[in-house]
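Hi L., both proteins are below.
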Amino acid sequence: MSEYWLISAPGDKTCQQTFDTMNNLTSKQNNLCNNFKFHIPDLKVGTLDQLVGLSDDLGKLDTYVEQITRKVAAYLGEVLEDQRDKLHENLLANNSDLPNYITRFQWDMAKYPIKQSLRNIADIISKQVGQIDADLKTKSNAYNNLKGSLQNLEKKQTGSLLTRNLADLVKKEHFILDSEYLTTLLVIVPKMLANDWMANYEKITDMIVPRSSTLITQDNDYCLYNVTLFKKVVEEFKLHAREKKFIVRDFVYNEEELAAGKNERTKLITDKKKQFGPLVRWLKVNFSEAFCALIHVKALRVFVESVLRYGLPVNFQAILIEPNKKSIKRLRDSLNQLYGHLDGASAGGQLSGSGADNVDIPGLGFGQAEYYPYVFYKINIDMIEVAKM
């Protein structure tokens, strides 16, 4: 499954005993799930008021960090294009696949020093992920503009003769060049009227050079012809040609401009290739950063909620559960059997600096759609599903 549950329960005589009791009932005896100890370091508790306010803010931060993590994953899938099947192997956290990272979670002391207050750690994460979001916007805009320019050029080199760029289809010998009186036009003729064109183009106006029209190319619906005539009758020719459903394309044969157009496409292709590698590397690195930040936010939420529910001194065991998809209801029932007595329990013990003793904390589980007697948060590591949308 791509879904994991992160729960906590009050410590028995030891936190190991809490884990063993839960693991024996759910995993070893009934095979309802796989369980892993989730290591949360000794964080600074602060006061009751600080914890209550922080609990709400961490819920919002959790949503924000997950949103940015998924956005990075989705854009990596977009950039990989025809290599999208390799997306899964590029979505790593700290050089591990996502299940391995969360089941062996270790707090990153260097990035998130535990001597800092909980609020400061949350602010560090918020700023870090906010910077990833800002950089993603800048990098994606630059790459998308480049890709868009290239796609527009390529569209002009495909599609109907009515709209596509004709530069790659014509040659110098198709034109009368550097003549004071004569010019060559390119005319798009519906295929069903091709015979009509060849029989009657010399009669559309006066001053058309006889036998000057040749078929240059054709697609499924149209033929491209050239025709040479005197410059003075060009506008009249265009008018009468349109009446017969022959369409004159505006085109001037200029070798320098044609070369510049080809060079522009070559340059765009080269620029896209140059940006592709560094952009993929940046996305991989910052997906890892964002995902790791997300799991640290989950750890912060479990810590704060556990202290609010179970009181001080801090004594709880955080457990990561990988549910067996077919046994979710039975697993819930087993957890309720173990921890149902916690429902409605107040925060016991003395909270540092708050003066609160056995205070009933209203609104525990801020921002949670699901409430259980034990602390519970869901982790969905299926980033690819969203990336393919």
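That was the first. Here is the second:
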Amino acid sequence: MPKSERKILLDFEKPLAELENRINQIRELAKDCSSVDVSEQISQLEAKATQLRQEIFNGLSPVQKLQLARHPRRPSTLDYIQAICDEWIELHGDRGGSDDPAIVGGLARIDGRPIIIIGHQKGRDTKDNVARNFGMASAGGYRKAMRLMEHGNSFGMPILTFIDTPGAWPGIEAEKMGQGEAIAYNLRAMFHLDVPIICTVIGEGGSGGALGIGVGDRLLMLEHSVYTVASPEACAAILWKDAGKASQAADALKITSWDLKNIGIIDHVIPEPNGGAHANPLQAAENLKKAIVSNIEELTKISSQERRKQRYQKFRSIGVFLET
């Protein structure tokens, strides 16, 4: 990994990075002075680093988890596809003149099973992020997603969606192209698909941009991902006219995986490696693949009619309201 990538640290990661740097420095010094045995000192510091890592990542606040979900080195849709798929063929275009790079999708095999995979795709650097519009899809992206879903439905292939977006593209041009209609169409159409649908929030799941590919039989979340009706910054700006109160909004919105699991929004939390998915992407991918394969096996045992019924009831039962 290049040094430039290693230097991307969140504030709460810095004490751990300093301790790990100290361990590395002692190792380097020991090489130059082989007569000095520092193995016990290194062992003690490594144990301290392990404990510190657990304390940090087990006690993250909602706004810290939001920062982790937005980490520039966090694995993306294409990263997971490369890690968990036996084969992958990306398909392009919505057959209406658009090919939105903020949403990728195509045909794949996982353990020999043919599937359709669709997901938001952010960039790795500023240039790539601009090209992919920071993972904010346009109307054409959601139409491309639905074209691929209908293809999978025609051939009996399960559908996997990976959610990682701050929201749909909020530009005026997006509304001119029918952004709201495209998302609404997807919401309705996904309820009627016959094949199993598994949706996984792998990073940041924001607003209607996430929901546009988020209706499924199972909704999974990686442990340090977030899922919210609006970003904490937007919520704070709306409620208090102060985006600086994002931390307060994040607490109130219940955006973390375990909060959403406890209130029945999501079905399963996928554990991440100690230090977050970016600390060990291959382990994160292995955990993700295990959860996906397990859920596909469960869902394929259910008839398509029963799956559609359960899918409808799942979303119909989310939320409560009071009449006064």
